[in-house]
Amino acid sequence: MDSTLQHLMDWLHQVFIQQFDGWVLLGFVAQFFFTMRFVVQWLASERAKRSVVPIAFWFFSLFGGGLLLLYAIQRRDPVFIAGQGLGLLIYVRNLWLIANERRAAMAKVD
Questions:
Q1: Which residue, 10, 18, 27, 64, shows the most beta carbons closer than 10 Å to its own?
Q2: Cα separation of 24 and 11, whole Å?
Q3: What angle do CA 20, 24, 28 make, to 5 degrees?
């Protein structure tokens, strides 16, 4: 095997096998939830034949982003911490706006 391929194989082994622990598993679970928000949004838009952002998108964003923030804090990654921290504020704000809108709609029905 040529040395470039061997270096790549060594790097992949170190990154994906040697350092695998519970935190890496949490990172993968978090990334799965974060990715699911796009799947949910895409499927809802396909069904509606227009761009739709369902409430599940914001819950997957909040849950996945929260787990990714924990992962980033454990890894001490300032860029990742700042990005996920700001994202959480946006997800919570959108859920708050949705809740207010639903309360206002229910008040009109009464």
A1: 64
A2: 16
A3: 125
- Report, in angstroms and rounded to the nearest whole number, the Rg of the chain calculated over CA atoms: 19
State the amino acid at position 80 in one-letter form.
Answer: F
CA distance to 43, 86, 103, per residue, from 89 (Å)? 25, 5, 21
Q: Which helix (H) or strand (E) holds 49?
A: none
* Assigned token pair, 110: 């009464």
pTM of the model: 0.80
Give the model confidence (pLDDT) of 6-53 as tens digits: 999 999 999 889 999 999 999 999 999 999 999 999 999 999 999 999
